[in-house]
Each structure stands twice: as C-alpha cells, then as structure tokens.
Amino acid sequence: MFKIFKNSWALFSGFAILITAHGFQGNLLQVRSVIEDFSFVTTGIIMSGYFVGYFFGANMVPNLVSKVGHIRVFAAFASMASLSILIHAIFVDPIIWTFARFLTGFSLIGVYIVVESWLNDRATNRNRGGVLSIYMFITFIGLAIGTLLLNFNKPDQYEPFILISLLFSIALIPILLVKRSAPKFKKISFMKIKQLYNISPLGTFSMFCTGLIHSAIFGVGAVYATTLNFTIFEISVFLFLITISGALFQFPIGYFSDRHDRRIIIIACTILSTFFCVMAILSSGASMQNMYLASSFGVNKIIFFIFVILYAGFALPMFTLNLAYVNDFIEKERFVAAGAGLQIIFGIGAMGGPFLCSVFMKIYGVNGFFIFLGIFHLLIGLFGMYRITKRDYEDNPDSTFTPLPRNITPLGIELDPTTAADLSNTDKK
Length: 429
What we know:
0% strand, mainly alpha, 18 helices, Growth Hormone, Chain: A, globular
C-alpha cells in the first residue's frame, strides 16, 4: 500500500486537495442560498446545475482528452473550477449561480476522468484493489474534511470562496510537476439503458432512484440543516456524519450482499432507509409547516443525529449495491460497460434530484426533504418485492460488492480487481 502511494503521491495529493475543495463548496453554496433568502425551488435548481454539468461533461470530456491530452485537460478544468467558485462570490444571482454550478460539474467530471485514467495506467492486476482503496479513502476523507471547512469563516463573507479557489489552484501544482508521461486514453464502451433494463429491471430502476436520492442528499442537505436553525458547526457535523457513515456502512452491507440474495439486501436497505427517514422527521420535533430544533446541542438533537447516521449508512451504499446486482446477471467481461451504462442512468436521476426535492420542501416545509427521500426509497423496496416474484436469483461468483465512492466514473470502476480479466483480454486483442 505504501509503495502504491509513493509511486503516485503527486496524483493522490493533488486529488485530495481538489476533493476537499469540492466537499466545501457545494455545502457552502447551500448555506449561503438560505442566507440570501433564495426559495427552496430556486436553490434546488441551482444545485441541480452541478449534476447537469457533470452529466454533459461525462459524455464530452473523453473526446477532449483524446484530442489534447490528460495534462492540458486537467489544468484547464481545475482552473475552470477555481474560476466558477469566484463567480458565485462576485455575482450573487440565482441564474448566474446555476450557470456557475454547471461549470463546476462540467469541470470536476473532467478532473475525475483524468485522475482515474491515470490511476488505471499505473495499476496492475496485483495492486488494482490497493489503488482503488486509496482512491476511495482519499475521496471520502476529502469530502468529509470539506464539510468541516464550513467553520472557516461566515458563509456570507467572501473569504470562504477565496479559500476554495485557492485549493483548486494548489491542487494543480503536484500533478503538473509530475515527471511521468500522461497515459494513453482508452474510451469506455457502455450498455444502452434498454439493454440494462432487460438484463436487470430492478437494478436499472433502483439506480435511477438512487441518482435522485443521492443528489438530493448532497445537493439540498445543507439547506435542510440550515433551515433547522443549526449553527454552522452543527451543519458541518451533520454533513460530516452523513459522508463518513455512508463510507463505513459499505463494508458490512457488501459482506452480507455477497453471501445472500442481493435483492433482499437492496430491499432491506431501502425499507430501513425509509424507516429512518420517518424517525429523523419525528425526532426533529418539527411541524409540517415550520421546522425548528432548539439551538442547544441537547439529547433530542443527539437522537436526531443517530437516526441521520443510520439513514445515511443504509442509503449511500445503494450505488455500489445496484452495480453489483446488475453484474450478477452478466459475464465478467461486460462489468465495466454495464457500470458505464448505469452511470448514465444514475446521472439522469441526479440531474432532477435537488430540484424535485426542493419542490417537496416547498409543499411540505423542510420536512419535505426526508419525505422525498423516503418515498423514493420505498418505491425501490416495493419494486424489489415485485421483482422477487418474477425471477429466481442466480449467484454469479465473478460479481462481488466492491466499495466505491459516489463520484467514481467508469474509468474508476476499472480499478475494481474483478474487472482485471476484462482488461487483460482487451490488451491481448
């Protein structure tokens, strides 16, 4: 493990700084939106802009990398991300913020594609799992630290925006100074949505709903906490716990999903997620019209945080659980192509998540946040129960649950050791 990090320290260091800035900026903008008295729906549209940019970037960046190379693309997109956050600080306007969020999403998917293709180039079938583990660890730790940076200064000041811009710029330095040449870029093929649905209706439907859910959690979660009258510190703790619990729960959920009918695990996770959504609403002590938690960090608030931890723990591993379930029905050589197709489905759902969730919050008050999440978890669970009656489960020994960060691209999925045979066969052709 140490040898892997030593050989790629510049890449990992630059990415760690960049992902920390990313974890900071999205939550900062949500809190600032509440301070600026933007409506729930307006804020939802702004935050959806990121996922729209991310989706379009995923389809355009690979061609750009093939034409101009990894280093130029990384430098250009990291600089664009640095610029986009400054636009927010200078022009406090919902339309401009939506455009800037689009630029951020478009930029960061470019960065992820470059970083993950670079890691693929340096990984071998022996150390592939180690590279993925380091990448996942850095991603979650960076996102978690980013949430704590909310305490750096007041969100209504310009200094936090400057800090984010500085972090994006600093992230460039170690990667641009690396001596090794950039890797050759290999395009990823993907399965079509109809084909994936025919292979696994539950996996496809669940991935779409998961896109709606995850984008709402990270696109509107800070708005929810801010409207609860949380202090900045409490908001950062709320977001930190969501990120960390989502990472840690992947391991026990993955363990059980590899040893039992994966549909049962999907249904159990979604039903438990729905239950903890209800408990989070009840423990907040809030009415449908006017949500409020006392500012003191008392027993009620601790209970609320416990339910949030449990909710995130069962909800956030769903992306990888869906991916592993679809892989149960295909041959090993198509795992990466299936992952690429599922990423598209996830992205389609993610584009609408923050906006639709904000509509629920407008109708039901801030309780609409967990109402929205609970409804889509319940839909996954009910559809899963229906699909169990239509199909027998067949175990595929090649398909395993590999913990993955939520922002991973198909190139990152290639780091999964179970895809090693696919890569080897491709090289031989």
